[in-house]
Amino acid sequence: MASADIIFYRYERSPYARRVEWYLALRGIPYRECLQPLVMPRPDLARLGIAYRRIPVLAIGRDVYLDTRLQLRKLEELDDTAAPKLGADTPEAMALERLLSLLTTDGGTTFSGMTSVLPTDMPLLQDEAFLRDRADFLGFELRPGTMRQARPEALREMAGVFALLETTLLADGRDWVLGTARAGLADIEAIWRLHWIANIPGALPERFFSAAVYPKVYAWMGRFDEAVAAARAAQQQKSRVVSGDQAARAILSSALHDEGLLDVDAEDHTVAAEGLARGDLVTVWPTDTGASGRDRGRLVAMNKDEVVFETEAEEDGGSGGNRTVRVHAPRHGFKVKKGDVGALLT
């Protein structure tokens, strides 16, 4: 699949979207982006039959991928790009890359817990529409009192991640966490949360979080910014913004990208427990944040790594008849149930 067939749905300042943006930049992969509103609804995704409420969403051809962990894995499989792949190439390094992903995405203070360290006087936190949207997204309300109560523990967890990198992987003065010659996927996995919060004025107290306290971590973050900036400057083709209509037409008129995953693994525990078979109606949703965005479609494939289902677009958008897209979600962090499951079941 030509990398030019990539469409990236994101909104400004999304820390998760930056994970994928960094990857695309470092490999020189051209793409089109469809900018989304900060809060729901997002009709550009709804027109593809997608209820998922997290950002970003990545389309490669007529296959749509949810969750940045799966998106990065699928981008890593692309071969026709200007730069080599960014992933680790030995079993030990691959294990460390995966553990860094788990640490920064699932371990310690989760991303939803990190909201406790945001300055309570941020303009967004005065916006009632934003607060209502994020209460639905997170499952709890962002209020100054509760944020201040949770802040000390969240800072302690953040300090643990900073200290771990300072005293282990970066302790010998290496440029990149796996000792590679250039920034890699492991650096993206390790840096995204720290980079996001360190660049929000007032979020981290300078007495405990600064280049004076963690010189190797802050120097690494600086090198990473320079590497991404250099990669973007060298790109011959930059991202191009398209409208929701243009994005839908492009996706629906494209061929399927991911033809390799077509089987439903009968030995899978959930497949067996739910009695699932190809063509069954399934409901799929994330189990941590954004659980209210539940997608329903016909099961195409399912194994230990991902579930694939077809959704129906609102219209073919001049695509020549295609009305369906294939949506891919990782198994980790997502629930799959047979039938049309309502919002009360978690």
TrEMBL record:
It holds the Pfam family DUF7962. Gene3D superfamilies: 1.20.1050.10, 3.40.30.110. Residues 9-79 form the GST N-terminal domain. Residues 116-232 form the DUF7962 domain. It comes from the Eukaryota. This is GST N-terminal domain-containing protein. It comes from Purpureocillium takamizusanense. The lineage of its organism: Eukaryota, Fungi, Dikarya, Ascomycota, Pezizomycotina.
